[in-house]
Each structure stands twice: as structure tokens, then as C-alpha cells.
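hey so i finally got around to running both of the ones u sent me last week. sorry it took forever, my laptop kept dying halfway thru and i had to restart like 3 times lol. anyway pasting them below in the order u listed, first the sequence line then the C-alpha cell line for each. didnt double check formatting much so if smth looks off just lmk and ill redo it

first one:
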Amino acid sequence: MKILRVSLKNFKPFRDLELPEEGELPDGLILVRGPNSTGKSSLFEGILWGLWGPNAVDPTNEELISFASSFCNAVIVFEVDGIRYKIDRSYDPAQGTSAVLYVGNKNVWKKIADKATSVERKLEDILNLQLNQALNTLLVRQGEVAKIATASASDLRELLVKVYNIELLDQMSKHLDYFENDLSVRIRSLQDDYQRPDRILEKIEALKERLEGHKEKMKETAESLKELEKMAEMAPDEEILSNIELFSKAVDQHRRDYERATKELKHELEGTGLSSTEEEEIEGRIEYLELERERLKDLRDNLESDLSSINKKIGSIQGMITDLREKIELLKRPSASGDDAICPTCSKPLTLEERDNLVEDYETRITTGAADIETLKAQRAEKQKHMKKSDDRLAKVVRTLDAIQRITERKKQVDSTKSELEAQETELDEAIGELGTEDLDSLLAPFEADSLSDLKKEVAVLRAKIDSVERERGLIDENMKKDTEEIASLEKEVTRMKELGAQIESYQILEEHAKYVRRKLVRGFVSDWVFQKRLIGIIRKATNQYVRAFTNNQYSSVDLEPTPARGRSGAGLQLLIRDERDNATKKTSQLSFGDRTAISLGLRLGISRTMSGIRPLKDTPMTAPRVRSVLLDEPLGGLDKNRRISVVKTLVNDQSFEQIFLITHTDVQGWEGVPVIDITKSGNTSLATLQMSPQ
């Protein structure tokens, strides 16, 4: 198991903690440092409480809530065998504890358990560990290392029995445990189905009272339905009312259309020079505008022809000027042979005087051509000005003709709308006449309605009330049948619950007998056999590498030697250690406190390491626990500087654990490059910040 993210709200000193703020917690060793009373151990408590709830920590739920807060919450994201999980646990004194377990699938969290008990069972399945064994695997408590260092032989054996007993030794008696579990499942299944007979009898009495209420309600609704049906007989036919309303709306709409079309026609007349929509005036106006349009088109054609002629003349003169300049350049260019110049037109040799005269003639013609171009450009500009005025006038004439055409169409629309309005008014009068009334006001008056819409609503409400009462009576009748059937069913259930209660009691007695046999008669034998044959060797192998590293190879191996019972003390385990410097095997009582602390820390880490892979027997089919993380709470207090450096360097390179959290407020060297969680205090709130490469 690897912890990825920790979120705490109102949990002891942490008001709103997101660790880390971005990303995830890294693998390997993570130092947790800070002054006393800043909340280092509280961070561990937050992780344990988030995973396992109140049974995992010493404080009560109420004691976990920050001062002046009304609830606390912990969200722990962790990974087991490459699968991500998230537990969201909250406590509110008014609502109690809530816990939800999710499994991650492609950035989507799927709920797999949503109650505290089901979350605990599911977590046990995921880790293959029960709560107490998981805590002994994951957590090395503050002072625990010192306790191991000073433990007597019997105390040390009892400590190891306590650590390994829950999962390891209980599984050795599984033939009885399976029987107990089967009984427990049966009892729970029966208890889930069981209800106290007196509670069922209370439900029966409540149903009988409700049945009487249904009967009274049926009488009341019968009278109400009679009155409503009498009123409905006086109401006009709903279909005719709908038709009249449609005709009325159509009349209103056609009247609005007529008024709008008349207004638009008047507006369009203003821009055409027409005083009315008389056909004679319109035709005269159109005839004048069409003649004007033809005149302007002819004028434009003439102007375009003039402009084309001017452009051609300008182009011809510009071509001449270009040609003359090229000839001048050719005449002025020195001859390669040194001879006289050559005429560019006839290729005849020229004297210098002839050449100069010819150049002068060309330049005179260029000057004259340039003057002619300027004159032509002025003429072209004047023509273009006249053409623009002609085009503007032509566009205006075309727009006016288009507007007159629209007026003609608009006039037809006005006439058509007026005819439709008159037809709709006739249909409305005929529809009202079918009801035997003279006009609309006479139709509305008896029902005190302001409009046909109001009258229709009144009739619809009346019909809806009748339908509602009929539905209500149908539901009441259905409920009466259901209540009668449920009373009969509950009376049978009373008899069944009495039989079920007797069966539960007999199973509970059998379960107590099974527990006695397993706990009192079997466990002692299994514990001793497993302890002597399997456990000591496993711990010895796992511990030696830590002891060598923590003591700079002064102590090379650890052994646990069973000791017989003495006096009131039971059987024990004597911790022996090989001192390479003195070439002697020593007891812990012969070592300094610092040496005992280092060796005890190695022993405790070896225990946690074995818990992630231990099995009761070599050939057992059971899956090993999936906890390969450890939380170390202040284990370095009894070590000197060199020993602390050795511990940190060893833990940095330790591949036995996926993740190691080490709390310390002691100065530690050799931690450069190790991720650090700095715990600080700000007022009454603690802050935790992850530094991946602290300086």
C-alpha cells in the first residue's frame, strides 16, 4: 500500500490541509519534521482515522474535531497492487460517522462501499489484514522502540504475540473459525430479516386506523364529485369555446395585419414622389422614370466610349515616349568600335551633328507628348466626374422604380388582408350564434369572465377538478385494497418472526460454544507451535540487515532465544546480539541504551517488513498482506548523530517498503535530497508542506 494524497478538514490542528498541494506523495523515505506540538503525530492520526475510523486512534471522534468547528473530515487516496482507492470519512456529532470507499478507473471514482462497516470489511479484503494487525504493520508508535529496548523476555514474547496473533495465529485455527463465521453469517442474515413482533403489531394497528381514514375520505369525495358534475352540465361545450377563441384570435391578428400593412404602405409612398396609390398616377410615374433610366444609360455609354478613347490616346503617347527615350539612350551610348552613331530607325551611320539634331528632335517630341498626356488626363477626370453623377442619378431612378413596384405589391396585400379580416369577423359571429347568444359579451356574462380565454380556463378548471376527484377516489380505493392486503401479510409475519427469533437464539448459543473451544482449547497450542517453528526464524532474517546498517556493522546478527517460564512470568524470548568489535554474543542488558535503541528499531522494522509477506505455513494458499508502508513516530530520540545518519541512509535505500514516513524533531544529517513534509504552526492552525528537494 502506498499513500498518494491526504486531505484533512477541521482535524485536530489542521483546518484545511491538502498534502501535497499538487501531484502525489513520492515513494521511499519521507521525513516529517517540525517543532513539538505542531501536529506531526496528528498527521499520522489523520491517515489512520481516515483509513480505519475511530478504532485506529486513541482520541474519541469529538476530540478529533478542531476547536470552534462542528465536524471533521479526512480523504485518503492510496494505491494497492497498482489499483487506486479513495476513502472519504467524516464525523459530525449530530449525524455521526460517514465513510465511503471508491476505486479509481481512468480518472473516474466508482463507489464500492458507503457505510463504515462495509468500508472496513472491504478494506480488510483489499489489504488482507484486519485492523489491529494492519496498525501493528503500518505504525511504529511513539515510545514503542524504547519499550522494546527495555522489555523483559516474557514482555518481548508477549509483544510479538500481540503483533502477529490476529491474522497469523487465528488462521491456524480456521477449521473452527470457518464454523464460527458460518454461524455469524447465518445469525446476521436472520437478524437482518428479523423484526420484533410487537413492532409489527404496531404497524397493523396504524394500518387499520389509516383504513378508516380512507373510508371517510371516500364519502367526502363522493359529495364533492356530485356538486362538480352539476356545475359541468351548465358549462358551454368546450370544443365550441375553443373554435370561438380561435376565430376571435384570428380576427385580432388580421386586424393587426391590416393596420400594419396600411401603415407600411403610407411610409413607402413618402419616398416615391407619389401622393396616392391610384393606378393612373403610378403608371405615369413609372413611364417617366423608365425614360429617365434609358437616357442615363445612353449618357453613360457615351461617357464610357469617350473615356476609352482618351485612355487609348494616353497609352499611345506613353508608348511613343518610351520608344523615343530608348532611341535617345541608344544614340548617346558610346560605340564599341569608336565609329559614328547609327540611326535607330534606318541603321544609317550618323555624324555627331546629325545625332545631336536627332536627339533634340526626340526630346522635343517627348515634351510635347507629356503635355498632351496631362491635357488628356484632365479631360478624363472631367468625364469620370460626369459619369459618377450619371451613375448616382441612375441608381436613384432604379431604387424609385423598385419602391413603386413594392407599393403595388403592398397595395395588393392591404386589399387581401382587409378581405380576410371581413371573412373572419363573419365566421366569429356565426360561431357565437351557435351557442344561442347575440354577441361575445352575452356569452361571457353568465360566468363573470373577462375574455374567451378566461371562460375557457374556467371550464377547463372545472373539468380538471372532476378528473382530479375521480383520480383521487381511484387512488383511495387502491390504497384501501393495499392496506387490507398488507394487514393480512403482517399478521402472517408476526408468526414467522416468533419462529425466527427462536432460531436466532439457538444459533447464538452454538456460536458461543464454538468461540470457547477455539479460544481456550486450540489457540494456546497453535500459538506455541507457530511461534517456535516459524516466527522466530522469519523475524531473525528480516531484522539482521537493519541492525548491521543502524550500528555501522558493530552488531552483525540478532537472535531470539526462547526461555522457559519462571515463577509468575510465562515463557519468553531473550534478545541476543553478536558484537563484532568485542567478538562476543551479548544480551540487551549488556548494551548501552543507544545500542539497545538502534537494535530495537531494527527489530521493529523487521517485524513490519515480515508482516507484508508472512504466511503461517510455507504451503498455505492464503494471500500475503498488501501493506508495504510504515509510519515511524519519533524513533530516533535515543540515538546519537552517527546512528541517526545511518538510520536515514538505510531507510533511503530500503527496498522492503514502498513508502516510509519518519517523524522527527531531532536534527538529522544525511537527508539531503530526501522529500520532507514540514509541519508548522500559524496561530491555532497547523500547516504541512511537501518539499521534494529541500535545501
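and the second one:
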Amino acid sequence: MKNILMLIGITIINFNALAQPNLKAVIEFEESTIDYGTIEKGADGVRVFKFINSGNIPLVISNVKASCGCTIPKKPNKPILPGDSGEIEVKYDTRRVMPFKKTISVSSNAVNSTVLLTIKGKVEDNSQPIISKKKSKSLNKV
């Protein structure tokens, strides 16, 4: 009798587990890399990564972290409901004249819990004149 009751109990538990839908959040970005191209020193360094929660529970982004202090990411403060979209805003310091490639790590409760995003480009300073170096003639010939 105990074995029959135990078997019935286990069967009921298994059916309940199977009856519940697979609850998960899924974050899907439109693009994982944003190419700034060539931009001027001091130009607007803000770009936006757009995403959607294609899961069936609210998506909570717990942290966004840049690989360098020259890049400042900003995450949504509220959970993103299933089917809704959101944005990760990224600001790069365009006062640094050089090529760049930076990574932003996005952590969330999604099944793909950590997503890496990339920004890249080149900052040029067009306000400075280009100085060409001329070969100087030696005056020390005897």
C-alpha cells in the first residue's frame, strides 16, 4: 500500500512539472557590433544597441560593464517584459584621437546570461594641420 501511494505521489509530481511551461528570458540584440567609422575629435560618441526580450518572463539586466573607462554604458532601470524591446546606450570618449575597439559585457537573467557587445572606429583630429617632414640638407660638409 505504501509503495502504491508513493508511486501515485511521484506520478502527480512529474505531471505537475511537465505541465508548467519552460519559463525563461531571452535577450536578442539587433546587432552585436557598432562601427562608428571615422569620426572627428569631440564628436557625439553616443550609440545605442537595441534588443528584444523574446522569452516568456521579464528580462532583468543586472549589469553592463565596459572594457575601458573611456566607454560608459547605460542599462535600462526597469525589467523588459516579454515581447518588449529595450536599449543599451554606450558613450565613447571621442577626445581620444586613435583607432578604438571596446567591449561591453551585458549580464542578465536571460538564458544567454552574458552577452558581449563591441564598438569600434577611429577618432581623427582634423583641426590640426598636417605637418610634412622635409629632409634637411646637412650644412656640416667640409
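quick thing i noticed on the 2nd:
The chain has a mean pLDDT of 87.
anyway thats it, ttyl
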